[in-house]
Structure formats: structure tokens, C-alpha cells
């Protein structure tokens, strides 16, 4: 079985044709808190980002993949960020854009595929996720995949006039 393909979704590299979907995702104001964004992105900036998306993870320390159904419908993104090859760790973030695609196992499979990729191909020892304390769906997703709560960052994010806690979840791969 291919590392980035399951029976529900496949993960693939960004393509120029993803510009409109990326524009929608990055400019949905309700999602800005997830990426600490405070301003919209222009199509020009996002086009430039797509033109450079091919750069090696060892150079740019991040990787964004498209989550696509097997019928080739783009439904979200999954990211590796803060890639640290020396310490063999990286952060993971996931977005299933439309609520009607959530709860169908797509995110679970995408997260599983990406974790396997990180451990097998990037030789990581651990991956982690930063999750807002109120984001029960993400907490459930990551804990079902074996991530463990390892810390609470008190009053970490300031959103809508309120400080919120951010939780740190880790998955340590003990298979060597």
C-alpha cells in the first residue's frame, strides 16, 4: 500500500489548481484562530506560495499536503510544521474545510497516513499537535490516534477578546 493513500483519502502535493480552495481556506475568518492569522491572503500571495510549495521539507521546515477523497474531491489540508530533523520531531495540523465532510473518517485516516509518513520517511521520533482547549473534535481525533495530552499552555491565545488555553498533545513513536 502506498504511504499516502488509504481506502477513504489520499494525501498529495499542492498543485496550481488548488489556488481557489487554498484561497477559501485561508480567508475563512472563523478559521483564523487555528493558524494565528489576522488578515486575509490575496490570490497573488497564495499563488506565490503554491509556486514554492515544492521546496524540500529539510529546507523550509514544513510540508502541506492536500487531503483528497478517492473521487478526487479536495476536502482539506494536513500540515507538518516546525520540522526539526536533529531532534526528530514536528508539529501536525489538519483542516477539513467543510463541516459536512467532518465525522466521516477522512481526518482520522489522513492523520494516520501522515503520522506513518513522518515515522517511516522522515524518521521522526515524535509528532505533536497544539489544540485549543475548546476544540473537542480535534482533541477526540488526535487522542483516538494515540496522541497523549502532555501540557497546557495557560492563556496562550487571545481570540475574540478572551484568552484561551492551548493543549499540547504528543505521539511518541517507540518503534525503532
TrEMBL record:
Name of the protein in its database record: Diamine N-acetyltransferase
Superkingdom: Bacteria
Keywords, sorted A to Z: Acyltransferase, Transferase
Protein source organism: Mesonia hippocampi
Coiled coil: none
Keyword presence, Cell inner membrane: no
Cell wall biogenesis/degradation in keyword set: no
Cited PROSITE patterns: GNAT
Domain (N-acetyltransferase) ranges: 9-170
Its EC number(s): 2.3.1.57
GO molecular-function terms, A-Z: diamine N-acetyltransferase activity
Amino acid at each position: 500500500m502506498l504511504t499516502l493513500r488509504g481506502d477513504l483519502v489520499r494525501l498529495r502535493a499542492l498543485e496550481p489548481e488548488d489556488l481557489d480552495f487554498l484561497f477559501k481556506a485561508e480567508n475563512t475568518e472563523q478559521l483564523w484562530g487555528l493558524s494565528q492569522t489576522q488578515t486575509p491572503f490575496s490570490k497573488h500571495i497564495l499563488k506565490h506560495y503554491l509556486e514554492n510549495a515544492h521546496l524540500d521539507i529539510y529546507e523550509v521546515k514544513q510540508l502541506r499536503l492536500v487531503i483528497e477523497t478517492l473521487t478526487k474531491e479536495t476536502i482539506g489540508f494536513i500540515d507538518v510544521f516546525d520540522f526539526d530533523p536533529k531532534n526528530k520531531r514536528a508539529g501536525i495540523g489538519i483542516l477539513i474545510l467543510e463541516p459536512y465532510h467532518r465525522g466521516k473518517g477522512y481526518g482520522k485516516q489522513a492523520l494516520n497516513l501522515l503520522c506513518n509518513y513522518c515515522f517511516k520517511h522522515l524518521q521522526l521520533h515524535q509528532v505533536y499537535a497544539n489544540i485549543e482547549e475548546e476544540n473537542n473534535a480535534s482533541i477526540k481525533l488526535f487522542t483516538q490516534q494515540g496522541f497523549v495530552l502532555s501540557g497546557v499552555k495557560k492563556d496562550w491565545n487571545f481570540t475574540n477578546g478572551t484568552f484561551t488555553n492551548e493543549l499540547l498533545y504528543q505521539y511518541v513513536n517507540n518503534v525503532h
